[in-house]
Amino acid sequence: MPETELTMLETSHAYFNESCDLLELDDGMRQVLLNPWRELSVAVPIRMDDGGIRVFNGFRIQHNGVRGPYKGGVRFAPAADADHTNALAMLMTWKTALADIPFGGAKGGVQVEPSELSEDELHRLTRRYTSAISHIIGPNRDIPAPDMGTNAQVMAWMMDAYGQSHGYAPGVVTGKPIELGGSYGREAATGRGVCDVAALAASDVGIEMRGARIAIQGFGNVGSFAAQRMEEIGAKVVAISDVKSALYDNNGLDIDQILGHVAKTRTLEDCPGGESIANDQLLELDVDILIPAAIEGVITMTNAVDIKAKLIVEAANSPVTYGANAILEERGITVIPDILANAGGVIVSYFEWAQNIQRFRWPLERVNEELYSIISSAYLRAADMVKERQITQRSAAYAVAVGTVARATELRGFI
Ligand code: GLU
Question: Does the pLDDT at position 43 exceed 80?
């Protein structure tokens, strides 16, 4: 266990190195798979509504493209610097490989707090960022998608900005509005996939999903859909939170009622139908399944000893620190890693992209069925490795993913 917490980039390198040891990969292959193939850093100047100019830092990091065009979201967040984006790009390479969809891994970021910008400023920022990276993206090169701080509207602006110089190309981004070639079910896909994987893992660790007690940290695009789906499949969501507050009811919260409150007020604060608890308390509740669906680094070496859940499903990217992961392993708590748990988003992005190219669309039921088929196969591939090598779910998921990319690298024969 490390003496201090590792950064997100150090964490992704540490898991990667462990999987290379397990797979006995040689040094050359490790170098090829570790280093991002291309890192683009751009200045994004925009005129603010008050007439002044501000310049934001933007990035697009293409980690590995051996299995197909680079794929991954664009994050608008103050923390989205080069290292952060780099770590997330690497996670995408493993996520697409584990899901066995034909993409590499990339991530984009702009260091900005989007809630501080007006709609017009956000629009200008998105267009300027898109034109700054437009020479390295494209339906057969690199396909951005939404991530923290971005959404379907931002994707629509990106598609339009790219199209101005490259012609109509809806497959350049995924997670678009339905009206512009988005896929049914894409918005809900990450949360839905989290629940699909949680149910498979629950049955492996002996938790009955019907009536299982669930705590979800985060009520954004992932947490809110995960909460609705959990309720639909008969689990009991006893706690949820957003940045400011958390809501708890031992008998299960009424998710529809909460969605109504959030739609009106944009926050969980003063939401009726539960007791208000502190945000950190949510992580330590006595529940069956804990779903961190907000940001990275929330389960730490400090609070990992107090976690009572039997199963943790990483709906956010990297919510459990490297040190906390070791403590949870020692305590026998199963952690389903992000590269498996939250792959539902990029899986439905794959459907959207493939269908944009062919100009057709599946109905929602078909999308959800195919999502389940892909994500459950990924779960089973990792679960087989867990049994075979007697390792954790994270080590197994990494080994399957890194092994897949290593084999593809050898087969391509470019080194
Ligand atoms: N941003 C999401 C992720 O981290 C989705 C990426 C995509 O759809 O390309 O997996």
Answer: yes
CA 145 to centroid of ligand 1, rounded, Å: 6
**Alpha-carbon distance values, 312 to 202, 283, 304 (Å):** 10, 10, 11
Active-site position among 107, 176, 236, 310:
107
Q: How far from chain centre, in Å, is Cα 236?
A: 23
What is the C-alpha to C-alpha distance for residues 107 and 296, in angstroms, rounded to an integer? Answer: 15
Domain 38-184 identical in fold to domain 187-341:
yes
Residue 180 token pair: 């512009």
What ranges do the domains of the chain cover?
Answer: 38-184, 187-341
- DSSP letters, 162-185, are HHHHH---GGGSSS--GGGTPPTT
* Per-residue b or e along 196-225, where b marks 16 or more CB atoms closer than 10 Å to that residue's CB: bbbbbbbeeeebebeebbbbbbbbbbbbbb
> Which atom of ligand 1 is found nearest the CA of 144?
9
**β-strand partners of 44:** 56
- Cβ of 167: how many Cβ atoms within 10 Å? 7
pLDDT number for residue 125: 98
Active-site residue flag, 107: yes
How much distance in Å is there from the Cα of 317 to the middle of ligand 1?
Answer: 10
Of 136, 181, 186, the closest CA to residue 160 belongs to: 181
Please say whether the beta carbons of 122 and 150 come within 8 A.
no
- pLDDT confidence tier of residue 2, bands split at 50, 70 and 90: confident
CATH 3.40.50.10860 fits 38-184, yes or no: yes
- Rounded to the nearest angstrom, the distance between the alpha carbon of 5 and the centre of ligand 1 is 25
Note the pLDDT tens digit of each residue in 342-361: 999 999 999 999 999 999 99
Atom of ligand 1 nearest to the CA of 148: 1
The residue count of the chain comes to 415
Determine if ligand 1 sits within 6 Å of the CB of residue 71: yes
Q: Is 147 in the pocket of ligand 1 (CB under 6 A)?
A: yes
Copy the structure tokens of residue 349.
């992005």
Ligand 1 pocket check for 231: Cβ under 6 Å:
no
pTM for the complete prediction?
0.98
Residues 306-349: tens digit of each pLDDT: 999 999 999 999 999 999 999 999 999 999 999 999 999 999 99
Per-residue confidence band for 414, with pLDDT thresholds at 50, 70 and 90: confident
- Looking at domain 187-341, its CATH architecture is 3-Layer(aba) Sandwich (3.40)
Give 237's strand partners: 214
Atom of ligand 1 nearest to the CA of 342: 10
Residues 42 and 59 sit within 8 Å (Cβ to Cβ): yes
